[in-house]
Automatic annotation (TrEMBL):
Residues reported to bind Mg(2+) 2: E312, N314
Species this protein is from: Pullulanibacillus pueri
Gene Ontology CC: one annotated term: cytosol
Top-level taxon of origin: Bacteria
Entry protein name: D-alanine--D-alanine ligase
Family the UniProt entry places it in: Belongs to the D-alanine--D-alanine ligase family.
Active site residues according to the UniProt entry: E17, S188, S323
Residue positions binding ATP: 135, 180-182, 188-189, 218-225, 311-312
Length: 362
């Protein structure tokens, strides 16, 4: 590495969270230490083109500056990101910070691309990202590790068509109503609904199948929603805990992004024993899914007995200045700029360690 490490901030993307991603990039680019890093913006347009901009040395005034023109001189994805070109290219970053959420960003696909290009990146690798994104795979792994979670049942569209009666019997025996029905692979609560009876359930399943071929049904827990930040590769650090209090029946898409009625309470108040359980489970879940860099582990604390359940692990949690994850770290004593710095260093460290792995025996 000569001079300052070059950090490519990749944002946008073909997903429901395009706008959020842009907002995040704006926050990160303005906060990152430019004395220390050379900052290169890379905009994935909502059509899926990768457009690289000029190095950013000062502060941005508004986020629209990040909508890089698709002009002919801009480097396209095909030039910027191909294994044959990249190593000779002056554009090769030392590390990529992918500020992308959901499918194609947080699910291992883009991570696989960076692996092939032999570029360090912030966050979890291919397997961790992919498994955390798939609610069914994640739950099966949690089960194998004895991590407490809501009772669940998963099935594919094909199975739903072929064995509907059997699935209904199993559901009503194992879980009952109310229950949550979720597409296996999405985020932001899209396609998720709560059903209160068989009729509602049929509708919920149809809705979820619009978004994925696989769905998961869970017992609806009467619980508080507590989130905790984890950073690290081998040695893990935990943030303060925070609580989500949404104005609606559950933390749905509107309450996440639109209605402004959701409160983030930091720190969340729980008993010592509950806090200890949350901390143990957060680390366990992070390791079980093979995460690295960062994750936000979302838990439930059941109202009746304060038992802790893991809900999900987000490998690229919301990362604007006002999102839960950075706010948790701020409360823990790690400012946004410092947090960005730590994550970049963890990404570089992971890449260096992986570079020492032998692939051949001769
Ligand atoms: N088993 C459950 N019991 C109670 N509430 C749930 C359950 N599963 C999900 N929810 C509610 O639905 C919201 C979204 O579900 P989640 O699995 O976190 O999906 P996403 O990946 O879209 O965030 C949660 O934040 C919570 O409010
Ligand atoms: Mg969630």
């Amino acid at each position: 590495m000569n001079g300052k490490p070059k950090v490519a901030i990749v944002y946008g993307g073909k997903s429901a969270e395009y706008e959020v991603s842009l907002q995040t990039a704006f926050s990160v680019i303005n906060a990152i230490d430019k004395e220390k890093y050379e900052v290169l913006p890379v905009h994935i347009t909502n059509k899926g083109r990768w457009v690289e901009g000029h190095v950013i040395a000062g502060a941005l005034e508004y986020k629209e500056q990040l909508l890089l023109d698709e002009n002919p001189t801009a480097v396209s994805a095909n030039e910027w990101l191909t294994p044959s070109n990249i190593n000779a290219s002056k554009h090769k970053p030392d590390i990529v910070f992918p500020l992308l959420h959901g499918p194609n960003g947080e699910d291992g696909t883009v991570q696989g691309l960076f692996e092939l290009l032999d570029i360090a990146y912030v966050g979890s690798g291919v397997a961790g990202s992919a498994v955390a994104m798939d609610k069914v795979l994640a739950k099966d792994i949690f089960r194998a590790h004895g991590i407490p979670q809501a009772a669940y049942l998963a099935f594919t569209k094909y199975e739903w068509t072929e064995q509907r009666e059997h699935i209904l019997a199993e559901l009503e025996g194992l879980i009952g109503y109310p229950c949550f029905v979720k597409p296996a692979n999405l985020g932001s609560s899209i396609g998720i609904s709560k059903s209160h009876d068989r009729k509602g359930f049929m509708g919920s399943v149809e809705l979820a199948f619009q978004f994925d071929q696989k769905v998961v049904v869970e017992e609806a827990l009467e619980a508080r929603e507590i989130e905790i930040g984890v950073i690290g590769n081998d040695e893990l650090e935990l943030s303060t805990i925070g609580e989500i209090q949404s104005g609606s029946d559950f933390y749905d898409y509107e309450s996440k992004y639109q209605d402004g009625e959701t409160n983030l309470i930091i720190p969340a108040m729980v008993e010592e024993e509950t806090l200890a359980q949350l901390q143990t489970l957060a680390k366990k879940a992070y390791k079980a899914l093979n995460c690295s860099g960062l994750s936000r582990v979302d838990c439930f604390v059941r109202t009746s007995d304060h038992k802790v359940f893991v809900n999900e692990v987000n490998t690229m949690p919301g990362f604007t200045l006002f999102s839960m994850f950075p706010l948790l770290w701020k409360h823990t004593g790690v400012e946004y700029r410092q947090l960005i710095d730590r994550l970049i260093r963890l990404g570089i460290e992971r890449h260096q360690k992986r570079s020492q792995i032998r692939y051949r025996i001769d």
